[in-house]
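Changelog note: in this version the structure field was regenerated for every chain. One regenerated record is shown below for reference.
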Amino acid sequence: MAIKLYLTRHGETQANALGVYSGSTDVPLNETGIAQAHRLAEQLSDIKFDAIISSTMLRARHTAEIVCAKLNMEFSTNAKFVECNMGVYEGLTRDEARARYPDLWEKFGTRDPDAKLGGGESIREVCDRVDEGMRELISKYRDKTVLLVCHGFAARAVHRFMHNLTFEEMFDIIMNN
């Protein structure tokens, strides 16, 4: 048997609402995100989880806290599932990033798995980190039902791992707040 994994992205943040890259910036949920987390908790209330794991980042932890309060459970954190460090793009919108860093924008746009965004992580580095986290979860929670609360890009990497996707195929995965 294998792990039964439920995967969710954290609730909305103000950065999400404004279209700002917040990758490794530890931003809180906004009011919409808090309401989304409460709706998620309701939707999951009939499922018997053996464990709930969250990224160590505030927005994911807050989502997990709200879900756990409803399910009367505790959660643990795992830093392997934090969001991609977006380097010099942190705090910028897509338009601002494209205007300030046109060469990086073009290189990153090619989805080169080894391209880095000025101090950030490459796609391959994020996937390697998430792959390691997934191997840990599968080993620790074999035959268990687990909820993983993480982030948009990290969720793509989880899908890549679980479904043996290529780097290119993982970009077809979109997980909204």
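Spot check on this record: The mean pLDDT is 95. DSSP finds eight helices and four strands in the chain.
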